[in-house]
Amino acid sequence: MKLQNILIDSLSCDSTYKKIIELDENKTLEKIIPKTKDMKLNGECKYHVVNVYNHSLNALKEFEDTIDEDKFFSSHLRSYIKDYLNSDAGTNLNKLQLLKLGIFLHDIGKPDSKTVDTEGRVHFKGHEIVGADIAVNLGKDLDLQEKTIDLLNIYVRHHMILLVTYKTNNMSHEKLFEIFETLGDDVIGVLLLGYCDIVATRKLLNPHEDTGVIKIYMEYALTNYIYKYKK
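Structure tokens predicted for HD domain-containing protein (231 residues):
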């Protein structure tokens, strides 16, 4: 079996999180995604207490735990989210499976975008743009269909949307509809990724913090998309 196929097959596992750890331990992962070496050496900063690799694994585990929890999402959203995740992403993958890859890759641009300011603070400005380019090239190496690569690009390129709207407290009608115009139905995947990214980070910074407010932001945006924008 080609190494690329091993990674693709892992996306259909119940626990892709565990499978990726296994691939890393047997030295296969770095052969498929060479950037994982740099991911392990970068990432710690004011907002992250672990490296990019471990954070990405934590976010992926958060996602798998979330979608396995039957009543996590509010009842008015469950069927829409389920339908989205089960929809076709090309390359014999559904969006649930491709989103797992997007979550693992979402910060892959950080090593190449790392800067240190005059006060010694680490920054990763523009890492989502750099990471999207890396993800696109990886998609080509994995022989993914163009449709699949385009969606992977969207997940990585726009994964900061929920964090930005949360930090700026800007959930205005104008801002949300601007996002919806850009992403369409894939705003669902992007918001799910953003939620798991934030929660995985916050749980390490403050284990006792109630992350319910992050869920409220995510579900507010999803509700506006499904019940106002689409209709």
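The radius of gyration is 17 Å.
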